[in-house]
Give the backbone structure.
Amino acid sequence: MGTPGATTSTVAAAKSALPKWAHEAVQLYESNAASQFIVYGNVNDQILCPTASTPHLAGLVEFLCEVLLPRFDVVLSYDLGNGIRVERGGEVFSKWPQMQRDPTLPSAPRAAIEKLTYYFRYVANLARLNRERLQVACIIKSADLLAPAVQGGLDYDLNALASLIRDWSSEALLTSHSIASFLITENLNDLHPLIVNNPRAAQIKIALPSPGELTDALNVVGSKYSCALKEYSSDLGNIAQRGTSHSSLRALPWTRWRACSRPKSTLKKKLLQMTW
């Protein structure tokens, strides 16, 4: 997790700009304490991406890809609606012999998790044979829909699926290789107990942004929509101190769009009145 080819000072500056939860995940991964992260809490909010060129607000998956996983050769994601998607490294992923035989990616939960597990083991075996070392990451969106907590626990297919996901962080072959997985859920209680109670998985809570983080986000939003937010310029500090979400900040300029422009119908009406 980091930026390829970056200097020590650049990496240190980037880490200092990370949210607390992201900094915790980086420390756990780099110390080999955990390679699987159950990310929960304020997961549907926007997050400030502290990129050197143009800082911007983005969703959690985009933040993970841009900020925490820039050095990973392949980044995959899965959700029930879209199935397996290649977020980065499509050319590398296509070299997998199974993909060359059958390029279709399954969307059904059990088949998709099995496919991902096969690929992780393939990559780990390549490294064990000293042929190629690839860094691979997988992001499971809405993991509670994929592996929900079901009372009774008698669904063998669901339990097998949860067991495979748990293996990503406990199987010796996989833990000895650079494979990171992120399981995103809003509430821990909604996730299968085999995954939640996994001692090899780190639970990372995303809290509401702090006043300092809101101030940084306000500066980004304010610079982009300076005209729409000019009436709030003296109150931006108070907004940050009172607390809100990044998504609310991003919506703020659109609530004040009339400060900069008016509907064309209104302007046309005024022009017609002036001609009379």
